[in-house]
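Hi L.,

You mentioned the student needs an example of a multi-chain input paired with its predicted structure. This one should do, with 960 residues in total across all chains.
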Amino acid sequence: MKHLRVAALAGISFVALASVAAFAQQYQQSPVLDGLDLPPVAERVGANPRVVTPVSEVGKYGGTFRGGMVGGNDRNMLFTYFGYEPLLTWDADWSGDVYPNIASAYTASEDSKSFTFTLREGMKWSDGSPFTADDIAFFIEDVLPDQKLFPTKPGWLTVEGELPTISVTSPTEFTISWTKPNGLFIINAASVYGVQLALLNKAYCSQFMPKYNPDADANAKAAGVADWAEHMTNMCGVGIENIQRWRNPERPTLEAWRITDPYVAGATRVSFERNPYYWKVDTAGNQLPYIDGLSISVNAEAQTLLLSVLAGEIDYEVRHIANAANLPVLAEGTEAGNFYISPRESRVGNSLAVSVNLNSHDAVKAGIFGNKDFRVALSHALDRVAIIDTLFLGQGTPQQVSPREGTPFYNERLATQYLEYDVDEANRLLDSIGLDKRGGNGFRLAPDGSPLVVNVAGVTALGAHADAAELLVQYWQAVGVDARFSAQDRTRFYEEKTASQHDIVVWGATSGGIDVFIDPRDYFPFSTESNFAVDWAKYYIGDGGTEPPDYVKEQWSLYDQIKATSNADEQAALFQKLLEIAADQYYQIGISTAIPGLAVVSNNLGNVPADTPTGWIHPDPGTLNTEQFYFKN
Amino acid sequence: MLIFILKRVAGMIPALFAISILAFTVIQLPPGDYVSTYAAQIAQTGEAVDSAVLANLRERYGLGENIAVQYFKWIGGIVRGDFGQSFEWNQPVTELVWGRMGMTALISFLTLITMWAVSLPIGIISAVRQYSIVDYLTTTFAFLATAVPEFLVAIVLLYISTMWFGVSVGGLFSPAFENAPLSLAKVWDFLQHAWIPILVIGLGSTAALTRIMRANLLDELHKPYVEAARAKGMPEGRLILTYPVRVALNPFISTIGWVLPALISGELIVSTVLNLPTAGPLLLQALKSQDMYLAGAFILLTGGLVLIGTLISDILLAISDPRIRLS
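Structure written out for the whole complex:
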């Protein structure tokens, strides 16, 4: 398969050859479809289906995949497993290369302002109706601008508040454009977010809009909901993360399976059947998916799910229970449960991000926390090797919060500065910034003579976070900082830090690969998730906050420049400049390289790769192509 | 009799009102609200949270309003049969609550029946045959069962069945029947699964009731009227069942008043452990995510169920004992 490389993007046109080999081929279908009143399989997959190369071998048809969800709002389990069907796609290894998926090819204009996509000839929705550029246009022109359906517009689809326009040149060709450049559009179109563009079937969903159906409002009233927009959301699941996406069996979809028992109130089991019009085939011409149906239990508790896994009643699990804490019990149960533990790579920038609040509302603390030497001293006070041994069973090496080594975004200075365990240096730095006076309890006083108490908050429900906070406190007390561990409930934690009332918080680091472009929260004040400077981030997103110093503004302008180009090399170079500022400022204290993840996979499930990266933007197992999973027996 | 029932029902209204205020206060107690919990939850999985989206949600759910205003809106809706919207499920609470509450009521009711059916004969036997082998056995068993918390029994059962037999118990239906329409086969499937929760939930209360029945009956067995009947040559079995048992039954019936709340709250915990499609798991989840209208509806209805149980016990007492009916 010819793939499209981001690196060579600007202004060059690609034509995907994916289909040529399969063109003249005979297609086969699953035996369960035999004898049904359906058009021939070659007609259903269309003239130009996507050919998926199976991970290990061509599989066989049949079986029901058993999975598990926890609670009533685990919709993103379904999304990340079976709903990752974006316009373009990433590969399982997350090399950063973008491959054709729904679109068979695309071109980007030189100035990154417009993007032309080619769709597959004869591709169909799950109800057999044709999928065309009009469906995309329906979303861009009718759904996205609507204030009721999309009160807040997805950031990646807007450029400085401007929404895209679309021009449809043929049923299989359209161009999305802005008046200003949107250099990150293609990366986003291959991420989970890209699913949004081809989610809605115009023929079905437009019936709920007054623009297309004068009775829409009356129908909504008849259905017992407030207005047409709510009715449409209920029936169509307008946004990618709407739970309603998994509720209406009538809604046509492009996904490999379509829902039969919906994920509604009180459901204990959600089921899917195969989409007979799925537009992907394997290298032997078998229409995918291999697996005929899905049966997903809705569990009250993660522990119940763990028991199901141990009893061998789950075929693949990467959420909820697939973590280091459960590793011993899982490892013990592999034989009885007939599963194996498949390593997964976490691509985040660190095992933990420890954020000192630069925007503290306490004037004295703001002065101290804002001093880089204070943060450097706190970093030197940590024995990271011991922490890694205690918390992460020795997995990982000391590192600051930084993009991962081996990616074009790695910045050595940012990753490796201030890592040495050096108590003397920590004490010297603290003395040098006016914290040299001690109180009666032996702890350092603030420069004005008042006691300096530093609260270190961790969420107890996220075990490692609270454990880490407790450990850090001991190291900092050893250098005379009156640090105190504050065990917090997740909600309280969130309220406090969003209001910038925290001192120091322990939270997970986020992006460390190509996703640094999509969510750079750890490298400059980007969103209210940038825990080290929430107020500055609020200023950035226009939600009040306080005006930051010039170096932050320079980072913002560099990020704008990244968005203004789609040349990958240029983007990476600009990001390095941005990281240099982050390294100068030393916003966050990191502990170690990311902890490896894991997935529990049934021995009976074939074509599952190992060591693949996981994450929200590059979801597991969606990016592994679940449609080519198959049952060996 | 009718006046008696009406008076009892009238007494339930202020009680229900008090429960509603209590329920609403309790669900408001934790810091934050549904939106901040939601934000924290999705941020944990590394998903991006847009603060504009959160502000929008808060406005849509009316979470910024005064608590008193929120309460009266809520209770006003309930009077009209509208329990509000579940934030987490994005569906009206009414759609969620009835099926699950129905299951909870069914399980609790079945447990109550089983409990009576088991503890009554055992209590009688161990009183009549005091200090016999049977008495010692049931007494030992009863003390053990009262002392062990139900959820622990559930966990141990789960462990044994998963680790030793390789099947996970839990649930009330086999996967094949979970979404199937009601049929005879489904009822049979239900019964095959339901005995585990019934056993687990009823264990402690059954043991306690056995002890109560035994103690009550022992009080009566040595009273003069029993001796008199025996002296007149009445057959022993008929004698015991007709006179002392009937008198001893009084405290037995009135126990529903406290057994029912214990059953229902036990059911809430056990059903979470056993993953039953009853109110418990949903209520716990709703409390954790601060899905306040859903949680409120469950607490209110559970309270209502307890009140109804007490009413039934009052009525049964009135039927069996004319002294209560007339006073």
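You could point out the following to them. The longest helix of chain A spans residues 568-585. The CA atoms of residues 72 and 137 of chain A lie 33 Å apart.

Best wishes,
N.
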